[in-house]
Specification:
about 230 residues; alpha+beta; 5-stranded mixed beta sheet; about 35% helix; about 15% strand; globular
């Protein structure tokens, strides 16, 4: 087990600078495998905000507002951009606990959205073309937390990264996606000893299975999800 991030002993009372420093240290660690994330942070294209407990009412309201602002003014058409939400809690017991909170948070966000689900992705987590949508933008969501079994997902506090789908399609059109994907997988194998067994290309299997970062069974379903009306 390799700890890439700086631990945050008390996220509830830690300064925003300490929380951001922990995550930044993780991404900038030489062994961190995701070169896309490295590029986002290096180019100052990560919009980072700190919120209350993951899945809470307070976090839902502030996160929805921040993502609405990101949609309205953020550089979503840039090559690599991400919206990064760092949460002050709660204390994560295990991977299943984090997964429940992640899907509770996404469900509550979806219920805050009055816009139509992005037409490029499905709102059904069982569909191979599922993608999370908010305010008309399709996202691939990456969850990180202190109890993650994968080194690349083990952050000092709960984190959700919202990566616009549009940038992956642009990479495919530029014939850069496969090369970057293969670099990340080789780096992940070097770090962990194995490639993340949950990683799949979009359209071959529902990306919902990858969001929380833990290995899931073939019959897996989100622990909490209410499919939004179209």
């Amino acid at each position: 087990m390799t700890d890439l991030s700086v631990p945050v002993p008390d996220p509830v009372h830690a300064s925003e600078e300490a929380l951001l420093s922990s995550l930044t240290g993780m991404v900038e660690h030489p062994a961190y495998p995701c070169v896309g994330a490295k590029a986002v942070f290096h180019q100052n294209q990560a919009t980072v905000r700190v919120h209350d407990g993951l899945g809470s009412d307070a976090a839902t309201l502030s996160l929805a507002e921040d993502l609405r602002e990101f949609t309205r003014t953020g550089p979503i058409d840039e090559s690599f951009v991400s919206f990064v939400a760092i949460f002050r809690g709660p204390t994560i017991v295990d991977e299943e606990h984090f997964e429940r909170l992640l899907w509770r948070q996404l469900s509550r966000l979806a219920r805050q959205d009055g816009t139509q689900w992005n037409g490029d992705v499905s709102s059904d987590p069982a569909d191979h073309h599922f993608g999370f949508s908010l305010f008309g933008v399709a996202y691939f969501v990456v969850g990180l937390h202190p109890q993650a079994s994968r080194d690349a997902r083990r952050a000092g506090s709960p984190v959700l990264v919202f990566n616009p789908h549009r940038q992956f399609e642009r990479l495919r059109n530029q014939e850069r996606y496969v090369r970057m994907r293969d670099v990340i997988r080789r780096r992940d194998q070097r770090l962990q000893g194995t490639i993340n067994p949950m990683v799949r290309d979009h359209g071959t299997e529902s990306e919902a299975r990858q969001y929380a970062g833990r290995p899931v069974e073939p019959t897996w379903e989100p622990p909490e999800w209410i499919e939004p009306s179209s």
